[in-house]
Write a structure and sequence with these properties.
alpha+beta; two-stranded antiparallel ribbon; 156 residues
Length: 156
């Protein structure tokens, strides 16, 4: 399932000033970006575009839940994710590469955010994903899997 026009801000015709946009990242997005290894989730995106003469500023705030696989027990769990960041959108040829600057052709009239949102989500996923502990302090991992791992543990 494709979602070609879902994460686009049409800025041509917008007056200078602040403009707010909201998007929802859900299953079709995660299916498109399989290498995230997130089968599903729901992440809300708030984008604030400040249009100025010759450039734009974009503030992104992401928050939500994603299903991720536990690195310890291999069971899936809901991982809360969040991201806040700013990007500068300039027009013209890329003078130098910068993670915080997007360069657009001066004739462009829209800002495609799909790749940018993918990058924001990618950096919000921790390197090591493990079930959070239960309220009683015990591991949230699958108890049978942990028992099996302990049985197979090589002891010195």
């Amino acid at each position: 399932m494709k979602f070609e026009n879902q994460y686009i801000i049409q800025f041509k015709g917008l007056k200078e000033g602040v403009h707010d946009f909201e998007f929802v990242i859900d299953k079709p997005f995660f299916e498109e970006f399989e290498h995230l290894e997130v089968p599903e989730g729901k992440v809300s995106v708030k984008a604030t575009l400040t249009k100025k003469t010759g450039f734009m500023e974009l503030e992104l705030a992401l928050s939500g839940l994603m299903q991720v696989q536990c690195d310890r027990c291999l069971d899936y769990f809901e991982l809360p994710v969040g991201y806040e960041g700013q990007l500068l959108v300039k027009f013209g040829d890329a003078e130098e590469t910068d993670d915080e600057v997007i360069f657009l052709d001066p004739e462009e009239h829209r800002l495609e955010l799909k790749q940018t949102l993918y990058e924001c989500i990618s950096i919000s996923i921790p390197y090591r994903k493990v079930h959070p502990d239960l309220p009683d302090g015990k591991s949230g991992c699958d108890a049978e899997m942990i028992k099996k791992l302990n049985e197979l543990l090589i002891k010195d």
